[in-house]
Give the backbone structure.
Amino acid sequence: IHRNELSLPVHGRLSEGCCRTLLKRHQWAGIFSPLALNSHFRAALYENEPAESPIRWNAYVRATIAFLERNREKLAELREEIAKGPRLQGAVPNLDVVDRLITCFDEPYSVAYGGKTKACK
């Protein structure tokens, strides 16, 4: 991912497509500091998340921020909020990712997100 793909558009908000790119491409996590990632994730929050949203987007973003800030208690709290969210195709969106962040809490973000190491099993 190129750094310019992470720049904020007009009005200081990331587009939904950019948010998805930001949240799905984690191999670049070594390029950016947790502090820099944190600010991009904060920019991805909806000011007013629609109640009918099929995912608990803000809870997912805040869970990621809690992981980056090393706040295990907040991460667990947000996991519960996500778990109560709607199901899509039989699964709660992003719950698997947040579960990996919890399981791999002591690992770097890029490792925890993917959960592909023995430490995260």
